[in-house]
Specification:
3 domains, binds zinc ion, Rossmann fold, 4-stranded antiparallel sheet, alpha/beta, single chain, 15 helices, binds adenosine monophosphate
Length: 472
């Protein structure tokens, strides 16, 4: 597979460190509010990368953090008169619900910054010992010029940064940052302010800097070297540049081999963001559309291109997705009635013909995760199955068409199967079976049936008149 590596600004053949196991680290959200559709873009895109690697037979160690200590969380906690922990825990739960609704797989590990403080302190100690960091009045700074590769990801050079800095110098003096040795230095540990969450450290009570979190959590859950590090393009500088500086200075090995960055989701040509106020939360959108429409909409563009959000574009994504789902449902129905007979010669050819769509799909995905072209391959497949697989087709052929369509949609995280509700008669038969099981003192089976029904949203009530049921 070829991946566009931000570090080299070229598409490169992806070669993992271990032959079959890939380590991916994706910078996760700061949890102080519901996520918006822009935040969902990296989640969906890199989940699709993960699914593609799984489909290709790799094992994937997928790590994505929650930043659960941050100025924005503290601000929100003060506004609501609750603790920061209450805010972050609440929104971690909400983000997880949104991710599930977008069919984003749970990470192998979802570390939280506040649970990794001892390791952060350890990394700071290493950096101080090696001369890469220093403490002033309870703040620990990274000594940026001590790391020769600074700027290699963002392609910024120190002279340019210096020129920009001269204009900002006055502002920095005012903010009290002039205690730093050098304007380029950034914070690894900041001292406690009244009312803020803090942890003890050799430099006094305080909390870690944002960039440090990811260097530490990726090291702990993946290792010193990550195969793929990913996030939105706004993270390239300074966040990822600083992560590289910290990690490479501490570990003396290359930090991440491939850097992938998604483009922005825009609205009227501007980045969708909380600060601009031009955002829609996943919750709001979920009231208007099934969320897989949003997943499909996001994957319909290449992940590095900017993508404009508008109602009409989402409507057209919905219509396109419906075409795929209708074809899948039709095949699913044909499966029930298709005759179980030998494939005819012509059917064999039709079945052979299916391979070309999988090849096309793979070719697109191999080319830097081109999901837009991969979706085109699915459309071609849909056209092909619609015209070549009918109610006369033999079961084997229907299965081949259905399985392929389902497999390719699965890679994109699009669910094709229609969830059929149980018929009333099926429910009643199960309830009868449960009564019989209870009579026979087979309580395990009785409980099993109750749980099975509960999982489908059917609640049983034991009344004097017998067992009643209702849908939750
Ligand atoms: P934040 O919580 O702001 O740190 O953002 C979490 C993730 O969402 C980061 O990877 C950001 O780069 C990404 N992100 C934020 N806004 C957008 C947007 N409008 N389009 C695409 N990605 C975004
Ligand atoms: Zn990060």
């Amino acid at each position: 597979m070829k991946i566009y590596n931000t570090l080299t600004r070229t598409k490169q053949e992806f070669v993992p460190i271990n032959e079959r196991r890939v380590g991916i680290y994706v910078c996760g959200p700061t949890v102080y509010d519901y996520i918006h559709i822009g935040n969902a873009r990296p989640m969906i895109v890199f989940d699709t990368l993960r699914r593609y690697l799984l489909y290709k037979g790799y094992e994937v160690n997928y790590v994505s953090n929650f930043t659960d200590v941050d100025d924005k969380i503290i601000k929100r906690a003060i506004e609501e008169g609750v603790t920061s922990k209450e805010i972050s825990e609440r929104y971690i739960e909400e983000v997880k619900k949104d991710m599930k609704a977008l069919n984003v797989m749970e990470a192998t590990m979802h570390p939280k910054a506040t649970e990794e403080i001892p390791d952060m302190i350890e990394m700071i100690k290493v950096l101080i010992d090696k001369g890469h960091a220093y403490e002033v009045n309870g703040t620990v700074y990274f000594r940026t010029r001590s790391f020769p590769g600074y700027g290699k990801l963002s392609k910024k050079n120190i002279d340019e940064l210096e020129a920009g800095h001269r204009d900002e110098k006055h502002a920095l003096k005012v903010s009290g940052e002039d205690e730093k040795e050098d304007f380029l230095d950034f914070v690894l540990w900041k001292p406690k302010k009244e009312g803020e969450p803090s942890w003890p450290s050799p430099w006094g009570d305080g909390r870690p800097g944002w960039h440090l979190e990811c260097s530490v959590m990726s090291k702990k859950y993946i290792g010193d070297i990550i195969d793929i590090h990913a996030g939105g393009e706004d993270l390239i500088f300074p966040h990822h540049e600083n992560e590289i500086a910290q990690s490479e200075a501490a570990n003396d090995v290359e930090f991440a081999r491939y850097w992938m960055h998604n483009g922005f989701l825009r609205i009227d040509g501007e980045k969708m963001s909380k600060s601009l106020g031009n955002f829609f939360t996943i919750r709001e959108i979920g009231e208007k559309y099934p969320l897989q429409v949003i997943r499909f909409f996001i994957l319909s563009a290449h992940y590095r291109s900017p993508l404009n959000f508008s109602d009409s574009l989402v409507e057209s994504a919905k219509a396109s997705l419906d075409r795929i789902l209708t074809a899948a449902n039709k095949l699913e129905e044909l499966l029930q009635t298709a005759p179980d007979k030998e494939l005819t010669e012509q059917e064999k050819e039709v079945r052979e013909g299916l391979n070309s769509f999988e090849l096309k799909f793979d070719e697109a995905m191999e080319d830097d995760l081109n999901t837009a072209d991969a979706i085109s391959a699915i459309f071609e497949l849909v056209k092909y199955t619609n015209s070549n697989i009918t109610s006369d087709s033999s079961k084997q052929l229907v299965i081949a068409g259905y399985d392929l369509l389902k497999k390719l949609c699965d890679v994109l995280g699009i669910i094709t199967a229609v969830k059929k509700e149980k018929l009333d008669s099926e429910i009643e038969a199960l309830i009868e079976e449960r009564q019989a099981a209870r009579k026979a003192k087979n309580f395990a089976r009785a409980d099993e049936i109750r749980n099975q029904l509960a999982a489908e949203g059917i609640i049983l009530e034991d009344t004097k008149e017998g067992v009643k049921w209702k849908k939750a």
